[in-house]
Amino acid sequence: MLKISKLFFVFLIIFSCTKNEKIDVVSNESSHPKLILTAQGVRDIRAQLGNIPIFDNSLKRVKEEIDAEIALGIDVPIPKDYSGGYTHARHKRNWVVLQKAGVLYQILDDEKYAKYVKDMLMKYEEMYKTLPLHPKTRSYARGKLFWQCLNDSNWLVYVSQAYDCIYNYLSEEERNKLETNLFRPFADHISVDSPQFYQRVHNHSTWGNAAVGMIGLVMNDQELIDRALYGIKGVNLDKKAKDDDGGYLNKDGKAGFLANIEEPFSPDGYYNEGPYYQRYAMYPFLVFAEGLHNVKPELKIFEYKNGVLLKSIKALLNLSDADGDFFPLNDGQKGMSYYNDALVTAVDISYHFGKQDPGLLSIAAKQNKVLLDDSGLAVALGVKNGKTKPFDKKSINLSDGSKGKQGGVGILRNENIELVFKYASQGSSHGHYDKLSFSLYEKGEEVIQDYGLARFVNIEQKGGGNYLKENKTWAKQTIAHNTVTQNETSHYNGKYEIGSQNHPDLHYFSFTNKNIQVSSAKVAKTYPGTDMQRTIAVIKDEGFEKPYVLDIMKVVANKSNQYDFPYYFLGQVLSTNFKYSIPEILKPLGNKNGYQHLYLEGFGKSNKDNTKFSWLNNGKFYSLTTISNTNDEILFTRIGANDPDFNLRREAAIMLRRKNTKNTLFVSSIEAHGSYSPVSESAVNSKSNIKELKVVIDTLDYTAISITTLNGDTKLFITANTEASKEATHKLTINNENYEWSGSYYFK
Amino acid sequence: MLKISKLFFVFLIIFSCTKNEKIDVVSNESSHPKLILTAQGVRDIRAQLGNIPIFDNSLKRVKEEIDAEIALGIDVPIPKDYSGGYTHARHKRNWVVLQKAGVLYQILDDEKYAKYVKDMLMKYEEMYKTLPLHPKTRSYARGKLFWQCLNDSNWLVYVSQAYDCIYNYLSEEERNKLETNLFRPFADHISVDSPQFYQRVHNHSTWGNAAVGMIGLVMNDQELIDRALYGIKGVNLDKKAKDDDGGYLNKDGKAGFLANIEEPFSPDGYYNEGPYYQRYAMYPFLVFAEGLHNVKPELKIFEYKNGVLLKSIKALLNLSDADGDFFPLNDGQKGMSYYNDALVTAVDISYHFGKQDPGLLSIAAKQNKVLLDDSGLAVALGVKNGKTKPFDKKSINLSDGSKGKQGGVGILRNENIELVFKYASQGSSHGHYDKLSFSLYEKGEEVIQDYGLARFVNIEQKGGGNYLKENKTWAKQTIAHNTVTQNETSHYNGKYEIGSQNHPDLHYFSFTNKNIQVSSAKVAKTYPGTDMQRTIAVIKDEGFEKPYVLDIMKVVANKSNQYDFPYYFLGQVLSTNFKYSIPEILKPLGNKNGYQHLYLEGFGKSNKDNTKFSWLNNGKFYSLTTISNTNDEILFTRIGANDPDFNLRREAAIMLRRKNTKNTLFVSSIEAHGSYSPVSESAVNSKSNIKELKVVIDTLDYTAISITTLNGDTKLFITANTEASKEATHKLTINNENYEWSGSYYFK
């Protein structure tokens, strides 16, 4: 078998050297590899080896890694541990090693890798055929190798690729043995035996679908492929059943890979759980799609739903800051970035199967790693051939909802300032009660932060690395976000059922003037009887060193309420234009809805029309100016009360509190300005440039704010609150001055 | 005049091209420039221009800077502001501009720079001859251009250089005018008119001395030179008078530049105020020394006190972490580093006038900047000619005190771990009450921090950029440091008079075994009747991923006391092996001596022989293991109570509290281990490797600690508490085992 195979390759190499265009020597159905690596791809790669630096280096690292593993010997232990324990870690490691060894066999044509894969697979086969459910019982869907089906699915997604790579190396008898005793029952366990895991629209199910589908493609098993694409035939879950996170298991009966593309992705490619989970879900989406593209090109999977899979990669890359770190919307752990391996997959696939966007090459170059497959080769060649261009992140609006009608996320970019305006829908079970919240970045550094999740992923000492209870009691609550909390309760009363049935709506966005980026959205029903509308602009104007933020939050309510509006600034308090006192002892600000986790560190009252606050962070100065009245309270808060395990970061906010108020308008500017160097000890431009913000008018239809700088220049920003289409024309008289414009806003 | 000068230069260049060795064409006394730039240096520089990248780039940046200034025009405003105000900033800027323009005139031979310097100097002359004292009255020694003589002296140190550069460009009449109306009265004002400023051993006086001496050298005025070197003849200050910081003005009558070298520098080159102020004082020390070397070589200034000036540069560079940031000992602002311009001066002078240490070139390359003078040329040529070697920082012990007998600072370096053990003397008025304290770094990042100062230097919003009251109430206090506080009072009762008359003493240091770095020091009289001895080792041992710290603090007291021993860790609490409770409300831990600034955030009691605590910082894991008894209290504290202006950083400590105890021993290990990546989300080696620490014996003469790892390996560390010379031999029987060794400690 081996000799034939080698000869066959020699023939293929000669063949591919004499003919330049790609020719399928044998049909897709029977030639291997065909799933991710393809027979043609292997020929192309071999022809280029030694001549494609990023690829060569990636290959070298993988070879070193796998050679070291082979030297250690094979271990396929009887499963017994949760994540963090040995058997969990070993099986997790094995799936990586198998996939990479398979690839090395194909690329290097060295039999030792094929033998290693075969030997390990045979050990799995030997164990699996009598393996009971995993002994740990915590999961809603127990696996066999792992405590949860999710990890079993991860395993199969990778191992399908390994099997594909050594398919031709194995005898038919060996293949039958593996398929009968390992792969087929494995695929059945995570699907037909675990419908509560498999038969859903959920990132877990996506992994399950991909696992079943990929092994189906390798085995050429149409039943498995169909099960992957469309779900388990004839199985319908209880539509009212809920999962551990409080989400419905399967409210509308949809399932399968196509439904998992259909539902969570908006037409713009925004994934409803947010970028952190999109990154996690990305790998099975893309790698299974790549397999489908290669084996079942007639499905045109990359064109499905108007090409949403490739769009989603662009969306995800745009959901990262200047350093490539994803914005931690919803449950997101800070620091996750496009350097994650899933994004290597995403960038390479997007480049190869998309339109060869040269901007992607610059990210690939930063990643300094490519997939060892056809797409990685394409990227490595692109970089090598000097096609790289910068990946220029611009302002972007990403709709949410499967039809793009459930709010969205607006990213306003202006020079080094990035503002993330979140008016998205609930975000499934990982969503936060943070409607119309925002976060602010300068050069990739957080200025006004989104807290992210309360979890230390995979750090066993912190609740086993799982979600901490503070994720629910703090991180998801409205008061943990830079938006309005009414009467110390969270949006939608903190209830998933309500949140998941409502969402904000885009009012407008306007990015055409490069100096002025604006996004405006509305939300009803976060609180009964209260409507909110937030318009945020990032404005680069003469006289200002850097773009500044203008933030207008309009609240219309049918009764008097208390409104709390925090800004979670990072850094050190520099100055205020109001007096405040500090308490002798620190007490929690409340007893529920997140307030129990805040200490009150300082308390003041505004005594001016504009309340000002400046701070210093990472050598840069920032100033908040907010229109205020003498009843406004100003609170300095700090996170950390009622936190018995020190799970929360002790970070601060300045909070505006407006009591006994029905309709109201919060108007603030945030300026980034100047710098401080501890080396030269020079403070440059350390003060706000804004003398006064003023509400000029505020009606149902228009809100107009004047911005006056220190040297007396005044600009007027008018936003249209009702009709704001690009085409709409507006006429407005303010203080006997006539203003006429067309479009969503006026600024002059 | 100009034509002659140009012809003269042409002659000189030709001359220097035909002869290779340096020849003084005219005597030092009359040729100009001669102070920092020399006539010969200028010839050498011109010959190399365009061929010395770092120099060329530095020159280019300076030229751009000065050309822009010239375009703006000259402004010499009537002085009226404190620092932060316009006139202060302008005069400060002018001194920089004058010095640089003078250098450009010499190097580029472009008359426009000379004219610019002349024009500005004439404006100063015009103003100065009738200028009264500066209107602001806060300083103990008011200047004329600035609110304090210190800044006037800064001005003259720089402007002397400018004057020297254009000396030959000016007519004799012009020189007479400047010297009579500006320089001579200027020098008199900061010296004979301000003896309380000038006639001291203090960094302020050093600036004054250098200013007077440098203008004296340019003017060839022996009286000024002598006044600079030896102080004002016949003036003696009241020996009991004190300055604003509580230090004596001049207790022993010493004054002048030589006394300012003699007193504050130890023979090892440690400056008694610490690295932050050494950096500040460095410039006048070195630039005046360079001038003296050039004009009065017979003084052999760089050999003075066994070459202490050049040694001090080496000491200073060693007092920086892996990133080049100075350890914030005493009053030190974090972030100050060897990228500061004063260190460009220091590195270049050290290289040129010292032994051309190739390690200095690597720092110069990082600085990417050289002085535009003879020394900068030497460095630029060294780098260009490939002589650069890494500046290899090793463990080092730096004695303190003018004779090296007043304690010191030990820096223990072992792979990426740096431990700074401070057993120095009081450190003049900038000292902290922190005897036997330490701080710990990994790869240039703080692990166990020294708080530094409570000040935002030059940030006007924070108390005008001056010292904040929390510097005294918090930063200087013992409880703000990683050492023992007895009965909630600071060392020496927080009194400068007592602190400045006492100091710790080195017991031993041993750096010969590269795997084991040890330093031990003793101190008496921090508290009456209490002696302390601390021995700190950084040990690289088999079975440990990284070097760990072993910390032994032995306290011998004549009565029962309470001992508080904090570790100011940075990062997030991960786990403890003891139970603790958190209070519902946060209260200050005490009401004075720094305790009023600490909140108690958690309280526990040890229930084991070893108390363990782990934390995570910047993606790295750390564990503290400390030998404890069941009466030991464990407190989690956080800085920030009674801080009405948010001047303090809200950072944490874990504090061991031992009550009602006479003699005692605190023994702890600190391990750095593993890593966490938020990109791969993998936690590697996240747990302590130490199973148990145990006191095996503790006598007057010996303390022996056993360290047992998780896999059961036990090592014994014995430190000799009394006789610890390298030659001493020791015999000791512990549990029937005999131990024999020679030297300070035993480890096996």
From TrEMBL, chains A, B:
Places the protein is found: Periplasm
Keyword Zinc recorded: no
A GO cellular-component term linked to this record: periplasmic space
Annotated source species: Polaribacter aquimarinus
InterPro entries membership: Alginate_lyase_dom, Chondroitin_lyas, Hepar_II_III_C
Primary site of residence: periplasm
Higher taxonomy: Bacteria, Pseudomonadati, Bacteroidota, Flavobacteriia, Flavobacteriales
Domain of life of the native organism: Bacteria
GO MF term (any one): lyase activity
Gene3D superfamilies in alphabetical order: 2.70.98.70, Chondroitin AC/alginate lyase
UniProt keyword Hydrolase, yes or no: no
Record domain Heparinase II/III-like C-terminal: where: 400-653
Listed PROSITE patterns: PROKAR_LIPOPROTEIN
Name of the molecule in the record: Heparinase
Keywords associated with the record: Lyase, Periplasm, Signal
Domain Alginate lyase, chain residue ranges per copy: 101-323
